[in-house]
Specification:
The complex is a heterodimer of chains A (about 250) and B (about 525).
Chain A: H1 3-25, H2 29-53, H3 63-101, H4 109-131, H5 155-183, H6 186-202, H7 212-242
Chain B: H1 18-41, H2 69-99, H3 103-133, H4 139-158, H5 164-183, H6 187-206, H7 211-222, E1 230-232, H8 241-260, H9 267-279, H10 287-295, H11 310-313, H12 317-333, H13 374-385, H14 418-422, H15 434-443, E2 450-452, H16 453-469, H17 471-495, H18 502-529
Antiparallel strand pairs in B: 1-2
Helix pairs in contact in B: 1-5, 1-16, 1-17, 2-6, 2-7, 2-13, 3-4, 3-5, 3-13, 5-16, 6-7, 6-16, 6-18, 8-12, 8-15, 9-10, 13-16, 16-17, 16-18, 17-18
The chains are: A mainly alpha (about 250), B mainly alpha (about 525).
InterPro entries (chain A): Aph-1 (IPR009294)
Membrane topology (chain A): Multi-pass membrane protein
Pfam families (chain A): Aph-1 (PF06105)
């Protein structure tokens, strides 16, 4: 609607990520690089998906078509997460070998979690930018835009809110996923894709008229669940490691 | 023993990749500001017929939106061809002048064109800004302020000892100004021009007869710096007193080590030490470099100087201190340099310093070309600046310094290139005059990657153009360019010689731009408008 509104929407979607960035990530160049890399990977995955689906657009409002789209997209992205993990594992080995050679401490547990967090944040930021921020250009002007099916709030607001939820999910589920891969915990490993899939499928509810009234709070339940679960995982990691000398 | 509760210990990821970030940050700032300018001032996509500037780049064909695609394409190709031909001619002229040792001329010309860019072109942009934002200011105040701003910029390029931060900022300003003016070119011309410049850069730097390569070889063989506007990614903080001492000391050590080493062949241990030394940045330990040095420590113990920051050294400092102590003793005996302030003892920040202070491009910056058209001066600026040299792992000796140009810098991450990279610069220049040594010492700081200003400009033009279309395309291009920059840096670490920075990034940027525009946008907008988000 105006500059203030545009900036407000942008900050709504990206605010927590910005604060995470400035407090945690901007101090360590390596994390910044991780963030940029994971953003790029996410962008590439999105391009591939859009290449696949481009022929079928516009989809109208067929729910099954969108459902299919979501399922394929989410599976692809989760597959990419696995790939990301493998790359990270190799990187970790290189870093550890390097640290040994210069007689420095190996990667701490917190380091690893920070790398995972930076990776997740990269995904989240890329998501927010592409799904929400890039559409904000009209919001800086004098008018606003409402979507039919969700006429209570301007489109920009609702998309920013949903993006915020997804940013959080991406960020923290990467930490859970890395921890799960490292420890081989099946529950966590299954949990992450499931959360992603469920959250995306829930947004299908938005296709129904007034669906966003139900859809968005459900997404936020999942967000809160993810955050708490990640907190639990982190706490376990840290307390595990404070009881013994960390070597890994 | 690390104790998780004692987190004051720095981990290795603290410093890794710092050099890259130090070059990525100004590039990002430049791009961001250009996008901001482009969005605020909104160079009219609305003016159909005016290509408001007649520049070298549009001399043949002035694009009008009413033309057919084919006309636009051929016109753009012609324009780009003319521009590249022009740049080539000018670069050869530069090589000729350099060959004939007209360094002063080049320097003065560069300073002059920096002034022209800052004052006239930058003034134009500020006037647009004032107009768009309806900012109340009178012309006298504005004139005085702007004139002062430009003069400070000019001084920062022509003087030798000024804070690196000022020079860096002014370089970024110049990049922003020129990039903005480039964004005003018609669309097709811009894209074709970018591709043409990327190809030109590739040929000019890599092909044996290419002008940039000649320039590099000339400067290496003469040990002179090329006058150029180059962005050097040094750390920006002002050193505290003991840091300065530490740097001076280290520099001297390097010098001595260099002249002390008998031949390149002994360089293995020593050279690696030096190389490693030289390469690290002020703050980050480029640990990866140190590894090879560590391996050969046994051979060269007395001379190894490991520079790390004390905060990172932690426990390994003791051995370092001893070696450093020996080194200092060695140094003391060679009383060549009187002014060495040897300070107290080794345990300050042994930061690595770059022996050159890149800005003692003091007398180097250059420009080539005839100042006939006002715009063209900026083109010249660019021609100079497109001399991207990323040598070695990042050194661009261009414009560097009195010390050995080639490759004194390394960025940390070339993990195992250790031995091969090392040999290169051990034979230091024992023929540095004292004055030069002292100067270099005082300004010594650690080295960074050098990136030509032309790269800044063309990256920003690409992103600015993408932003004129859409933000999604802009972000995609930004990521692509940064990825390309990363790839170029890796290649640099691998190949150890001057590399063109434009081709990879521009290519990736263009590919991503078109992919986004054609594929991604429809997809994402569809999903988003239906509030389907994943």
């Amino acid at each position: 609607m105006t500059l203030a509104a545009g900036v407000g929407y942008a900050l709504l979607a990206l605010g927590p990520s910005l604060s995470l960035f400035f407090t945690l990530i901007s101090k360590k160049p390596f994390l910044i690089l991780t963030l940029l890399t994971s953003s790029l990977i996410w962008l590439v995955s999105l391009i591939v998906l859009s290449a696949i689906w481009r022929g079928f657009l516009p989809l109208g409002s067929k729910q099954w078509a969108f459902g299919l789209l979501i399922i394929t997209s989410v599976s692809f992205q989760e597959g990419l997460r696995l790939l990301f993990w493998k790359i990270y594992k190799r990187l970790e080995d290189i870093l550890d070998a390097f640290a040994d050679r210069v007689s420095k401490p190996r990667l701490f547990v917190t380091d690893k979690m920070q790398i995972a967090l930076a990776g997740g944040l990269g995904h989240g930021v890329a998501h927010a930018v592409f799904f929400s921020l890039s559409l904000l250009t009209p919001a800086f002007g004098p008018a606003t835009f409402y979507v039919d099916r969700c006429a209570q709030v301007p489109f920009f607001l609702i998309s920013a809110i949903i993006s915020l939820g997804f940013v959080t999910i991406h960020t923290f589920s990467m930490v859970i996923a890395f921890n799960g891969y490292a420890k081989g915990k099946k529950t966590d490993l299954i949990l992450v894709p499931v959360i992603h899939m469920v959250a995306s499928l829930v947004t299908l509810i938005n296709l129904l008229p007034q669906g966003c009234l139900i859809g968005v709070p459900l997404v936020y339940f999942l967000v809160i669940f993810t955050v708490f679960h990640c907190g639990k995982v982190a706490y376990e990691q840290l307390s595990d490691n404070s009881n013994r000398l960390p070597d890994r | 023993m690390e104790n998780p509760s004692q987190r004051t210990r720095a981990s290795i990821i603290d410093g890794l990749g710092e050099e890259i970030i130090r070059i990525v940050t100004p590039v990002s700032i430049c791009m961001f500001l250009v996008v901001l300018l482009v969005c605020i001032i909104n160079p009219s996509s609305s003016s159909d017929d005016s290509s408001s500037i007649t520049t070298i780049a549009t001399i043949i064909y002035d694009e009008k939106t009413s033309d057919s695609d084919w006309t636009k394409l051929t016109g753009a190709l012609l324009n780009a061809l003319v521009f590249v031909a022009f740049v080539t001619v000018v670069t050869f002229l530069l090589v000729l002048l350099f060959y004939c040792r007209c360094i002063k001329f080049l320097k003065y010309y560069m300073v002059f064109s920096a002034f022209v860019v800052l004052f006239f072109m930058g003034g134009g942009i500020s006037l647009f800004l004032i107009q768009t934002l309806s900012f109340p200011i009178d012309c006298i105040t504005f004139g005085v302020l702007w004139f002062n701003f430009s003069i400070v910029g000019v001084l920062s390029f022509s003087m030798e000892k000024n804070p690196i931060f000022i020079t860096q900022s002014y370089l970024v300003f110049i990049g922003i100004i020129v990039a903005y003016w480039f964004c005003l070119l018609p669309e097709w011309t811009t894209w074709v021009l970018l591709i043409a410049m990327a190809v030109y850069d590739l040929f000019a730097v890599l092909v044996p007869g290419g002008p940039l390569r000649l320039l590099v070889e000339l400067s290496v063989s003469r040990d002179e710096e090329i006058p150029a506007l180059l962005y050097e990614a040094r750390p920006v903080e002002f050193p505290g007193p003991d840091q300065v001492n530490g740097r001076r000391r280290l520099w001297r050590e390097r010098e001595i080590l260099g002249s002390g080493s008998d031949s390149g062949s002994t360089s293995n241990g020593l050279g690696s030490a030096l190389g490693n030394l030289v390469a690290s940045s002020d703050h980050g330990v480029n640990i990866l470099n140190l590894q090879s040095h560590m391996g050969t420590e046994s051979q060269r113990e007395t001379k190894l100087v490991v520079a790390e920051e004390t905060q990172l050294i932690g426990g390994s400092g003791s051995s370092i201190k001893s070696t450093l102590g020996k080194l200092l003793a060695l140094e003391n005996r060679r009383a060549n340099v009187s002014e060495l302030n040897l300070g107290s003892e080794p345990e300050m920040d042994l930061s690595l310093i770059s022996v050159e202070d890149g800005r003692s491009t003091g007398d180097s910056v250059t420009e080539t070309g005839s100042p006939t058209i006002q715009d063209s001066s900026s083109r010249y600026l660019e021609t100079m600046e497109t001399h991207v040299e990323f040598t070695g792992n990042s050194v661009t000796e261009i414009g560097s310094e009195e010390s050995r140009p080639l490759i004194d810098r390394r960025i940390g991450f070339s993990s195992n290139r250790g031995s091969e990279t090392m040999e290169i610069h051990v034979e230091r220049r024992p023929n540095l005059t004292e004055v030069q040594q002292n100067e270099a010492m005082e300004i010594g700081s650690s080295r960074g990657i050098k990136l030509g200003l032309g790269d800044f400009i063309f990256y920003s033009v690409l992103v600015g153009r993408a932003a004129m279309y859409d933000f999604m395309a802009m972000y995609a291009c930004y990521l692509a360019i940064i990825a390309g920059l990363g790839v170029t840096l890796m290649l640099l670490a691998f190949y150890q010689k001057a590399l063109p920075a434009l081709p990879v990034s521009i290519l990736l940027g263009i590919v991503f731009y078109f992919l986004t525009r054609l594929l991604l946008e429809g997809f994402v907008v569809q999903c988003s408008l239906n509030l389907i988000i994943f």
